[in-house]
Structure formats: structure tokens, C-alpha cells
Amino acid sequence: MTNDLIYVYCLTDNPLALTRNLGLRGVESLMVGDFFVIIKYVPESGFSEENFKANISDIQWLESNAREHVGVITSIMESSTVIPFKFGTIFQSEQSISWFMLDYAASIIENFQHIEGKEEWAVKIYCDRKALSEQIDELSEEAAALEKQIMASSPGKAFLLRRKKADLTVNEMDRLCKNYGQEFYDRLRNLSVATSLNNLLPTEFTGRKETMILNAAFLVNKGNVADFLHTVDILNKRNDNSGFIIEATGPWPPFSFISIKEKP
């Protein structure tokens, strides 16, 4: 079995980026111009276009290789600025890599300048709607006013008002989720250089009972990371009783903030 394809993990501007551990795993550094391409020679059996499409349907194969992809890039990030490549990026030869670097040289430089000294942090915000509904009278003036009417009404009228309040509660929770999500996003955006909004994920994908109300990535100056994470902690503590949960993870490879474009 020959390793005649080249798998590319990322680009870096640091010649000392490779660790001994990565070297033992077959990861190499290829110098092209002023940059270093972090690569691994791989067999066609796993990574030719046809075989790759077949292999990604194997969940175990996919998870193992995707984990290695992010792991290698994360290791390089410890000592270098990186431009990460998507999982499964394959080149046929070193010459084809050189051509790519030449065609995209200006864009590569711009991207390095954009992400240097910064980290990508992922933030997901969830809402426990049951906990939020239990606090609705404290958070919604309209719900609180309706509750007062219920308490002062006859049993028959109170029954009808409770049905009205049930509908109101759903609408108010939707409004609060939108408002709180925007507030949290704005607070964190003010501590960031750039942001990227991602699709909200349903509970069957998150494995959580809470509803996701924000899924975003933030590009943060390394000097601001402590303040960024401290703000997440403050918001979590302030809103714990209301059912809002904020999760920040990172630093991640800056996939959300890289855009390589060919020269005109």
C-alpha cells in the first residue's frame, strides 16, 4: 500500500510548529515560500475521492479521522498562528500544493494578518423552558398582571384566564429567549474582533433537554480571552434561575474566520 496522496491539515508561519509527537504520527512540515504546510502522506485506499466518500459513511472511521484532524491543528496552534484546512483536504503532489500557494498567496497573507494573535471561541446558549416558565411572572409584566387577574377572579373566569395565560407564557418565553439571546450575543461581540452565527441545532443533535437559542463563534484577541470568559461566567450566574445556560469552548482552529480567495 503506497502513501501517494498528500493530506493537508493547515498552514503556519512557524518553522518550529511540529512537535515530536506529531512527527511520530507521520505528520510533516513542507516549506512553500514563506509558509509551512502541515501534511501527511496517506494511501489512496482511504483518501482518494471515491474511497473517501465511501469511508465517511463509516461513523467510526469518520470520528477517528476527524478527531485526528482537529487534534493535529490544535497541537500546532499551541505555538503558531494557523490557517486550518477542511477535513479531507487532499493534494495529488507537492507541486500542486506549490501552485495552490502561489494562486492564493495574497489571500493567505491577509488571512494570517486577520487571525494573528487571536483565538476562536464557540458559544452555545440554551434555554430550559420549564425553568423559564416558572419565572415568567417575575420576568414578564404582562404575565404578572394576568396572574393578578386570575387570583382576583371567580373560578369560572379564572379557568378561562389560565388558558389565556398558558398561550401568553409560550409567546413571552419566545420573546425572552430572543431578547436575552441578543443581549448575551451583544455583550460577547463587544469583546471580540469578529463573530460568525451558525445554525441552531435541535435537541436530537445536542443531546440536551434545553432548547438552543444561540450558536455562534467569536474571534477574540488573546489578551481579551480572560475578560470574555469572565463575562460568560457573570451572565451564567446572573441568569441561572431563569433557565439560561451559556457554554463557551475553545480555543478552536479559526475555521469560522478564514476565507481563502484566488487572486483576480
What's the quick description here?
The chain is α+β, with helices and mostly antiparallel strands and 264 residues long.
Characterize the structure shown.
The chain is α+β, with helices and mostly antiparallel strands. The protein folds into 2 domains: 5-103, no CATH class; 119-257, no CATH class. Helices cover 50% and strands 23% of the residues. Strands 1, 2, 3, 4 and 5 form a 5-stranded antiparallel beta sheet that branches. A 4-stranded antiparallel beta sheet has the order 7-8-6-9. Helix 9 (141-152) runs antiparallel to helix 10. The model has no long low-confidence stretch (mean pLDDT 88).
Q: How would you classify the helix and strand content by structural class?
A: alpha+beta
Q: Distance between the terminal alpha carbons, to the nearest Å? A: 40 Å
- N to C succession of SSEs: EHEEHHHEEHHEHHHHEHEHE
Query: What's the overall geometry?
Result: elongated
**What gyration radius follows from the Cα positions, in whole Å?**
25 Å
Instruction: Provide the number of structural domains.
Output: 2
Proportion of residues in β-strands? 15-25%
In this structure, how is the largest beta sheet organized? 5 strands, antiparallel
Number of helices: 12
Low-pLDDT stretches: none
